[in-house]
Design goal:
513 residues; alpha+beta
Length: 513
Amino acid sequence: MKYQFYILVLTCSFSLAISKAQGQQDLSDLISRRAADSISKSAFGKMVAGTDDVTNLANYVSFVPTDGKFTLSGNYFFSVNNYLSKKRKTEYFAVGFNSSGSIVGGTVATLFESGTLNTGVDLGLKFSWRMNKPNIGSLGSETQEMIEKRKTLEIERDYKIDSIKNSLRLTLLKRKQVELNISDAKVKLDNASRDVVLLTDLISKCSSDTCRLRFTDLLIITNARIFNERQRINKLNRDISKLEEIYEVSQIDPTVKWEDRTEREQYLSRKYGLSRINLSYEDTVINKVKKVYDDKIYEVEIARPIAGMRLNWLSVIFNWDRVAYRTYYDSLRYENALTKLKTPGLTLGLQANFYSFYKPVRRASLLNIALLFKRTTNLEDLTSSKLTEEKIIASGSTTRKSSNEYTVYTDRVEIYTTIQLPINYYRFFGKDLNFGWHAFALADWRDTKDNLYDLGAGFIFGLNSTGGKRLYNVEIFAKYKDITRELVDEDKKGWKQFQFGLSVAIPFMTYKN
C-alpha cells in the first residue's frame, strides 16, 4: 500500500511542476483567434504525431523499426465546428493509428539480460483532443514589433474601406462628371476636325516647300489630337457604362431571393459576386478588402516568435495484439511438451498529456499519465531458454543427424487482466533543447493478486539538422523492475532487478520559432 502512496505523491508532484505559471505574457490575448488557433493547432499536431513537421496537419505516416518492432504509424487530423459555445469555434481532433509486426519482442533493447523471443502483430488506434485553450507565451519587445506592423496594416485597411464607401456614395456625381468630360472631348474633336479642313486648304495654297512643310507638321499634330480625343471618348464611354452598372448593382435589394430577381439583376449579381442573400454590393467589396488584410495581419501574427506555450490534451487508447511464442514443459508428454501458441491481447484506456516550454530559459517538459485496462500475458516477466531438438536418421551403417534450435519459455505463461498506471515525465534543456532527462513509473494491478511496480530514469540526447530540425532522440535508460519483489525470481533480486537499455525514437517534443 505504501508503494501506491509513493506513486500517488509522484504523480501529484509532476502535475504541480507542469502546471506552474511562467512569467510570460499570454500572446493569445494579443493576436487574433485565427492566429492563436493556428499556432496551438500546429503544436497539438506535432505533439500527437511525435514529429517535427506535419505538413498542413494532414496525414503523417512513418515506418520505424524500434525495440525489434517494425511499426507503420500515422495520424489523421480533422476539425469540427462547435456551434454550442457562446462564440462559434473550431475544435481539432486527431486519430492516430499504428500497425506493428514484431520479430523480437520483450526486452530486446535491454543489455546484460537474457532476451525473450516472440513474434506477432499489433494494431492500435488513439483518439486525441485538446483539453484547454492553449496558453501561448510572448516576449514584450517582439510583441511590440508585431503590434506596430499590425497597426500599420489596420490603418491602411480602414483607409481603403472608407475610400470604397465614399466612392460608392459619389457614383452618380462621377457619372455626371464623365458625361461632362465626354461633352468636352466631343467639342475638342469637332474643333480638331475643322482645323484639319483648314490646314488641308492652306497646304494647297502654299507656293513654297517651306510653307507646305510648316502646315503639314501642324496637320500631323492635329490628326494625332483627333485620335487621342476619340480614344478618350471610347474610354469615357466604357467608364460611364461601368458606373451605370455599379449604380444598378448597388441598388439591388440583397434581401430578395435569387429566383425573385429580374434577369438583369441576376446578370449583374453573377458579374459582381452578389450570389449570397443579405449581402449588398458594398459589403461584398468591403469583405474582399478585409479578407486581403486579414491574411496580411495573420501572416504578421503567425510569424511572431513563440516564447512559450502550455498545451494539454487527452487521448483514448485502443490496442489489439497477438503474440506467437513457444513453450516447453517437460512434465507433459513428449509430443505435447514443445508447443507453439498464439495469444491475443487487448488494451483500452485514457491518457492525459501536459506539455510546456519556455524559450528564454530554454526549458521544455512533457508529462503523460495513463490509466489502462489490459488483457495480456506475463511474457515480459519471464526469461527464455534455448532448446535444441535433434532428429537422427539411420540407414544401414550410416547415421545422419539434424537439429532445430528454438527459443522457448519453460516457466508457466499466464493470461491475465490488469489495470495499469504508467507515468512518464520528460524535461528538455540546452540551446536547442537537445538534452533531457526522463523519469517514468509503472503500477500494474493484476487479477492474479500479484502487483508490479517499476521505476526508471533515462538521459536523452537529440540530434538536430543544420536547419535546427530534430532528426532523432537517443535515450540511455535504467529501470528497476518489481520494487516490491512480488514477481521477481529469487536469483534476480538486488542488482539483477536493474535493466539498462538504449532506444532511438523520432522527436516527441519540439517547438517552432
